[in-house]
Amino acid sequence: MVSEEYQKGYIWGVYVKPSYRRQGVATKLMKEAMIYLKEIGCTRAVLHASDTGKLLYSSLGYAQSNEMVLSLT
Fold it and tell me: What GO molecular function terms would the record report (predicted)?
């Protein structure tokens, strides 16, 4: 079995004020975040999407997963 090593970048708390929604603000924020993550060497971007955000993230190429995380700190 071959194991791939990923450098994960986590995106937390994306929020756009309601009066600015549907104007491409979240898309622009996400694209800039993905550029930054690539620049610092990340090979994967991980986020936890709200029901409202799932359509946006899917349109940007994100795939749903059942990732589970345990913090040991």
Answer: acyltransferase activity, transferring groups other than amino-acyl groups
